[in-house]
Amino acid sequence: MLSRAILLLATVVAPLAFAQTPSATDENATIAEPEKVYRSKVRAEFVELGVTFGVVNIENFTSEFLAGANLTFRATEDFFLQVNYVQASDASLSSAEKRQGRAFDGDDRDFTHYDLLVGYNLFQGEFFTGGATANLSALYVVAGVGDTEFGGESRFTYTVGLGYQVAFNRRYIVRFDMRDYLYESSLLTDDNTTNNIQLSAGISYLF
Amino acid sequence: MSVSAFAEDAPAEKPVVAPMRLEVIDPYIEVHTGPGRGYPIFYVIEQGESVDVLKRRAGWYEVRSHNGKTGWAASAQISRTLQATGEPADLPSVSFGDYLKNRWRIGFTSGEMFSGELDGADLFSATASYRFYSWLGTEIEIGKIFNSGVEGDFYNANILVEPFSRWRLSPELLLGRGVMSLDSQPELTPLDIDDSDFTNYGLGLNYYLGRNFVIRGEYRRYSASTDDDKVKLESWKIGFNTFF
Question: Which positions in chain B touch A7 (Cβ < 8 Å)?
Answer without folding.
Answer: 126, 142, 144
